[in-house]
Amino acid sequence: MGWSSTSAPAPAVLLLWLLALAFRADALAANWGTRALHPLPGDVTVQLLKDNGFDKVKLFEADPAALKALGHSGIQVMLGLPNDLLATVARDVAAAEQWVQHNVSHYVSDYGVDIRFVAVGNEPFLKSYKGQFEAATLPAVRNVQAALVKAGLARQVRVTVPLNADVYESLDGRPSSGDFRADITGLMTSLVRFLLDSGGVLAINIYPFLSMDADANFPRDYAFFPAPGAPPSQASVQDGNVLYTNVFDANYDTLVAALEKHGLGNITVVVGEIGWPTDGDANANVADARKFNQGLFDRIVAGKGTPRRPQMPDVYVFALLDEDAKSVDPGNFERHWGVFNYDGSPKYALRLAGGKGIVPAKGVRYLSKQWCVLRPDASPTDPAIVGAVGYACQYADCTSLSPGSSCGGLDVRGNVSYAFNQFFQSASQQKGSCGFNNLSVVTTTDPSQGTCRFKIMIDTGRHDLTHQDSGAARAAAAWGAVVAVLALLAIVAL
Fold first, then answer.
1. Which residue has the higher pLDDT, 460 or 362?
2. What SUPFAM superfamilies does the record point to (predicted)?
3. How far is the C-alpha of 187 from the C-alpha of 76, rounded, in Å?
4. What CATH number was assigned to the domain covering residues 371-486?
């Protein structure tokens, strides 16, 4: 409601209020996934966040290097408790207390990490899980909340549950008809009521890309935020006197309507994940990712929400960086959601607050400038090639070779060389990792072609901004299995 002339705030109070609004409009949040074989060191990543105006970050698990790097950084943290711990934490409040002590209290008190939320589970009600985590989620939330109270952290750290958008639906396609999925209506109302009563928030993951990628008939322009002055998509949804011109607004407001239908409309709803991948699929490309994320950032900076929630909520962009060790079960695009490449370099230009462009990570050090490729005198029709490529891609990320992807246009020699190099780099260019039964050779000439970048991995043991426990230990552990089999390269039947 507006101020009357008799209730106007003092100038100093008004100035503070305006400054607060300005800060909120400029604030950005991101998901920082750590499933990388050669992770960008934690301190370098934190500086990347700060340099680009991100003041909130979500971690999917209590990664020690990331949490220590976030200490005293001024960045607020949402910390994930993984699905595989839900049952344990749900059964025993002592297990929840132990998890909170080791992963929340420890980092808050010993490292000064500003943890604001514990995200209990990750999309636990996803249809594809077939109810696997449904019984454990609410008891786990209750036990984590009790553990936070016991630790004296309940005022600072609140609970949430990041949910997939498939927990609600609209049978007639109008957001105002939104309701929870019939099979979990009771569970959803109980969960949200608990979050509301305990001061928590609800986090929802919305992916227009997945909607479009799963349905060849999905209206493409409806997946993006309309440009100012552009005509609305022909797929726009008329809902009473409101015209929904993009799937994000319609999706978010369908949830809001469902909450209101059950008397839960006061819960704060944040967007836990949203973004667009750049590779690994024909629909995942730099042009579309830039278009979608620029529209998203414009909305965030402007503070423009949806028809039912006019103020833009906190939005955790998915993701900050690519993750080359992430599961590809949903699709090869899963390793390519980053706004930044694996090394913190921007994939494309983006304007942030005040028209400021995104900037790259500083102080990144790389392995030697060398690549592993198919020998010039080796025939790409050699019978051993198929086995060699299969072996390389078993241990390294070859998703960029997918049809329609950045390296999908390479010829046979290029495909083989790309696979060999990915293995070589992922194995930290160790001696013997470019063997492949004498089919390959190390070169100092960059074999990159067109849109296909032949990567050189990060040297996790050398970088300018350094902590004692950098990502080197994690990278070495992650590649323990690869190192163990490198000696077999000479005798493997390829």
1. 362
2. (Trans)glycosidases
3. 29
4. 1.20.58
